Structures are given as structure tokens and as C-alpha cells.
Amino acid sequence: MASPRSRRRSRKRRSASTAPRAVPSTRRLERSERQRSADREQRRGRRQLGREGERPESPFGGLPISELAILAGFIGTVVGVINGGGPALIVGVIVCGLGVVEVTAREHFSGYRSHTALLAALPAVGIEAAIVAAFGEPKQRALLLVVVVPVFSILFWLLRRRFQVARQARVARPPALGPAADH
Fold first, then answer.
1. Distance from C-alpha of 90 to C-alpha of 98, rounded to nearest angstrom
2. What are phi and psi of 57, to 5 degrees?
3. Contact 58, 65 (CB under 8 A)
4. Alpha-carbon dihedral of residues 24, 25, 28, 31, nearest 10 degrees?
5. Cβ–Cβ contacts within 10 Å for residue 95, how many?
6. pLDDT tens digits for 79-102?
7. How far is CA 73 from CA 6, 79, 94, in A?
8. Which of 118, 116, 70, 115 is nearest to 94 (CA)?
9. How many CB atoms lie within 10 A of CB 58?
């Protein structure tokens, strides 16, 4: 018959120089993840600007037409600057500007990201350019501000309100995630 001592399992003894192994605590990991998630949600609640949800789809389907227009316009602008101006510079700036306006308007009016200042500045600068083209540059440049500042201010206010309505609609009912979301 075996002695009680021989029936015991032998244990490896660790040396005094090695520390015990750390066992990951799942509760600690879950708690830290919940805390990070809560912090993220709290920051999101305070933030009014920035992105919300997925970027709105292009009206051109999957083709990145606006992004290609921005790239082509940038290349045309660089070529025009290297050549000292001319048609390449003018066309490059216009094509790049059209691409930027399409992307910013799509993002703004869908409530994805606010581009209020840019969208309000474009017509204001256009009106200033039209006034200068029609009447020449005034001796007192501050007179241009009499027309441009109210146009910018009114457009800024209207565009900001429109964005807030679109953002509220986007947050309240996010867009469907595909055909499976319809069922």
C-alpha cells in the first residue's frame, strides 16, 4: 500500500527571485471598458461640431467624382502657378472650388459635419467680386464691408439653423445600414 505522502501531488516550487504570474481580471477589463465608453459618450454629448454617423453618399454613386475634381483642380492650380498664371490657374481654382463646394454642401445639409462659415463666405465673396467688377475698387475699401458683412451674417445664421435641424434628424433617427435594416 502506498503511503499518504506518495499519493500527494508534487508541486513545483518557484524560486524567490521570480514573481507570481499576473492573472488578467475580466471584471477589471470590463469595468475599464465601461468607463471608457461612458467617458466617450459624455464627451460626445458636450461636442456639438464634428462628425456624426457615416459620411453621406455621393450623388454620383460609388464614383469619387468630387474628390477627383479636387485633385484635378489642385494639379491645374499648381501647373498654373508654375507657368505664372493663365488659364490653367483659373480653371484649376474653379474646378477645385466646385469639388470642395459639393463635398462641403453634402456634408453640411445632411447634418454630418458643419461647414457653415465656408458656405456663408462663398456667396459673400462672390458679391464682393461682382461689386468690384461692376463699379471698380472703391477708394474706401471698408465700404465693401457694408454689403458683404450683412450677407455673410444672414447666410451664416440661416445655414447654422439648417445644419442644427439636419443634425438633430440625423442623431434622432440614424440612416439605415443597408437592406437588412429594412426588415
1. 12
2. -70, 150
3. yes
4. 110
5. 20
6. 999 999 889 999 999 999 999 999
7. 85, 10, 7
8. 70
9. 15
> How many CB atoms within 10 Å of residue 52?
18
| Cβ contacts of 111 within 8 Å, gap of 6 or more | 52, 163, 165, 166, 167, 168, 169, 170, 171
CA distance 9 to 113: 66
Asked if residues 77 and 95 have their Cβ atoms less than 8 Å apart, the reply is no
Phi and psi for 17 in degrees, rounded to 5?
-80, -15
Q: Among 10-19, 32-41, 70-79, 159-168, name the one with the lowest average pLDDT.
A: 10-19
Q: Which residues contact 166 (CB under 8 A, 6 or more apart)?
A: 108, 109, 110, 111
> Residue 24: pLDDT band by 50, 70, 90 thresholds?
low
CA distance 103 to 163: 15
Nearest to 103 by CA among 50, 169, 55: 55
